[in-house]
Design goal:
Blueprint: H1 6-9, E1 20-24, H2 41-55, E2 59-63, H3 83-90, E3 95-97, H4 102-106, E4 113-116, H5 130-137, E5 142-145, H6 156-164, E6 167-169, H7 171-184, E7 191-195, H8 204-211, E8 216-219, H9 221-230, H10 245-257, E9 261-263, E10 267-271, E11 280-284, E12 293-297, H11 299-311, E13 314-318, H12 331-345, E14 350-354, H13 358-364, E15 373-375, H14 379-385, H15 391-394
Parallel strand pairs: 1-2, 1-5, 2-4, 3-4, 5-6, 7-8, 7-13, 8-9, 13-14, 14-15
Antiparallel strand pairs: 10-11, 10-12
Helix pairs in contact: 2-3, 5-6, 8-10, 9-10, 11-12
The structure holds adenosine monophosphate (AMP).
């Protein structure tokens, strides 16, 4: 996919000397109860772009949301807590301000970094207000979008400001876009998808989009039960959205028409209670009893999935194949993820995963590091897979500002 990259804004050394860059990052990091940062992945992701802009001589203004303050200042959701961690990460000073102002910028030197308070303290942010975006844009020369995880929102600081200023993808955003487009826009075929998770209802758009694009689609997790039910199998006491029976049949029909092979579980692991280490058994899909709950795919299903992976060149994965938070119902997710990681490591498969619980499931399997790419973006990754245009990406395609 073609889009404007940070490198386009910095054709030569010091290209941004005397210029100001507004940089949208995602510092919405998870924290422990004592306030400390429990996972600094998002913070670290922003560092290469900040450093590149420092080297280019720009004054750097960082914008991010944090939590859901509902449009007014909430001290508990102030972004100031991130400053010490950011100072450590970039090994340089960072200033903090509640508001952006001309006098403040005029005191900045090339390479200085200023973090602005939580963008969502302004109620206009989530409304995608043009006035708020103009107030931000008037202080800067370029906009750098480096928060793929916020790219599906048409918010003032992540999309609208990029309609006003020349907009470039930051380095973290570039990596995300290059990888997701590698698997969906121009993939090496055969292309295989694995979609799991709890419910069909949250992934209808996704399934509809994927069946038109993929050669093979594995449907696992709780959502597979709805498809099995629709096909006339007894799913006992399993999580199942009976009212989506017709939708499930429609998706299967669309898959057939598009020549996308659907793989549903042929055997399953069941228990009578939804609990770790609950008494369980494995059985063929036609042997599920009224009080059984399907909590994982069985060994024959995993073998079929692995065989399909052997035949694929590209894999896209969203959602676990079973209730992976509870042993032993993590087994099929772990085995299939490990196998995909092994094929990827051997150079036989391009594997990209993301959205919701997927990162946690792949980390749990010890497979995340060997995937080609694991996106930390939830909603944005899903909407991308659904084939929807993302406002924070569309602004990077327009060169006429
Ligand atoms: P999602 O956020 O839609 O990707 O769903 C992830 C959740 O689906 C995880 O918490 C899993 O425990 C849950 N899940 C996966 N398979 C099943 C299943 N067979 N029955 C109930 N929950 C499941």
């Amino acid at each position: 996919m073609k889009f404007q990259r940070l490198e386009d804004a910095i054709p030569k050394k010091n290209a941004l000397k005397g210029k100001t860059a507004l940089v949208r990052v995602d510092f919405n990091v998870p924290r422990n109860k004592d306030g400390s940062i429990s996972d600094d992945t998002r913070l670290q992701a922003a560092v290469p772009t900040i450093k590149a802009l420092q080297t280019a001589g720009a004054k750097i203004i960082l914008l991010s949301h944090y939590g859901r303050p509902k449009g007014k200042a909430d001290p508990k959701l102030s972004l100031e807590f991130i400053v010490p961690a950011l100072v450590e990460a970039i090994e340089d000073e960072v200033s903090f301000s509640e508001k952006l102002s001309e006098p403040l910028i005029s005191t900045m030197e090339p390479g200085d970094v200023l973090l602005i308070e939580n963008t969502r303290f302004n109620e206009m942010e989530t409304k995608g207000d043009r006035g708020m975006a103009e107030n931000l844009a008037k202080h800067a020369d370029i906009f750098v979008m480096d928060a793929f995880s916020a790219a599906h929102r048409n918010h003032a600081s992540s999309a609208v400001v990029g309609e006003i200023l020349p907009a470039y993808a930051g380095l973290a955003m570039e990596r995300e876009l290059d990888h997701v487009s590698q698997v969906l826009d121009n993939p090496k075929s055969p292309v295989m998808g694995v979609v799991g998770g709890a419910k069909v209802s949250s992934k209808i758009d996704l399934l509809e989009s994927l069946v038109s694009k993929l050669d093979i689609l594995v449907i696992g997790g709780g959502m597979a039960n709805t498809f099995l039910f629709a096909q006339g199998h007894n799913v006992g006491a399993s999580l199942c959205e009976n009212d989506l029976k017709d939708k499930a049949l429609e998706i299967l029909k669309a898959a057939k028409k598009a020549k996308c092979k659907i793989l549903l579980p042929v055997d399953v692991v069941t228990a009578k209670e939804f609990a770790a280490n609950a008494k369980h058994k494995q059985c063929a899909i036609d042997d599920v009893k009224a009080k059984d709950m399907i909590l994982d795919c069985g060994t024959a299903t995993v073998e079929t999935i692995m065989k399909a992976m052997d035949s694929a060149k590209t894999l896209i994965w969203n959602g676990p194949l079973g209730a992976f938070e509870m042993t032993p119902f993590d087994t099929s997710t772990v085995e299939a993820a490990k196998y995909a990681a092994k094929l990827t490591k051997a150079g036989k498969l391009i594997s990209v995963a993301g959205g919701g619980d997927t990162v946690a499931a792949l980390k749990h399997a010890g497979a995340a590091d060997d995937f080609t790419f694991v996106s930390t973006a939830g909603g944005a990754f899903l909407e991308w897979m659904e084939g929807k245009p993302l406002p924070g990406v569309e602004i990077l395609k327009n060169k006429t500002k």
